[in-house]
# Entry
Amino acid sequence: MAIKVKNNVHWIGKVDWELRRFHGDELSTHHGSTYNSYLIKEEKTVLIDTVWAPFSQEFMRELPKEIALKKIDAVIINHAEVDHSGALYDLMRHIPGVPVYCTPNGVKSLQGHYHQDWNFHPVRTGDTLDIGNGKKLVFVEAAMLHWPDTMFTYLTGDNILFSNDAFGQHLATDRLFADLVDPAILQEEEIKYFANILAPWSRQIDAKLKELMQLNLPIEMICTSHGACWRKDIDQVIAKYAAWANAYQENRVTIAYDSMWGGTRAMAEAIARGIRLADNTVEIAVHSLAKSDKNDVMTDIFRSKALLLGSPSHNKCVLASVGATLEELRGLAFKGKKAAAFGCYGWSGEAQVRLTALLKEVGFEVVDEGIKGLWAPDGSALDACVEYGKAFAKKIGKGGA
Ligand code: FEO
# Structure
């Protein structure tokens, strides 16, 4: 069912209430998602993006209720990933000659996915498409937000920025606008989206936001490709992205560990007590990497000024969940965070040394050599962890952004 966005612009996407895993099984989506497609009916009729492939047939059933397919004059594909281009193949079977506007990398990506030689019109930043009634679409390349092919499309007159993945959230809602949805869930999904999907491209995001400002386009609305759209406080929405893209941190510490028989867990909790004793203002998040949702852990680390990562020594290495966490952190490339390692051991105790080296390798500023606990730490050994927590809190300093 179409939802009016503004004037002659309507949302014609799909709300996916069921979705709980995205990008295969890589990303958790606790609150579902949406695949936002937009129909603009001016003198020319333009479709911006489609929906994920499993909903292609449904999309193709619904779209003709809004517009006779033969009346579509142009298709804009802001990003070729299949959650947005998934209905394109079925659509183009009905309108094979209609121009498809995308970036040059978009052409490569769409051809790579669908192996079709559609009527591609590659566009660059500043290129425009006149759609009549005094309005035009302005294209803005946005490479690595978050794929090389990504672009934004700006609609003059209505002053809408169609931003694709940027500014989105995995959040199923039929309310369309951010000011109509639960603000706590919105905020949670918004920062999770940035931390887990966009953070690796922070440098490009920062540059793109500056470029967008220099283009001086009045933006009254940001229409995303996932979740809610923004029509209020646009400056704050953009400012939030600028902050997240610049070594973001809050007054928060994440302690993440895995444990075989509870020793490393006991150390984690003792270290947390020590941090609390030294600083009663800092937020402390403690996660078992075997039990917590991976993407929630990454979001907490993204929000933190420091990470304490723990594993017992196991076969001279770290536990698999901890190794996977480090690989994830390598990819997400968070900036400006301090860290240290901890863990218990029985005989030679390689894990904590290995963790210390790996934390440095994936970009953390390691503040000390961390702490080891022999066998099952109790009594004085846990007291030492409390003292370590106090010392760690002093090293990372009080306060935060
Ligand atoms: Fe929502 Fe990059 O696709």
Remarks:
- The first helix runs from residue 56 to 66.
- The longest strand covers residues 338-345.
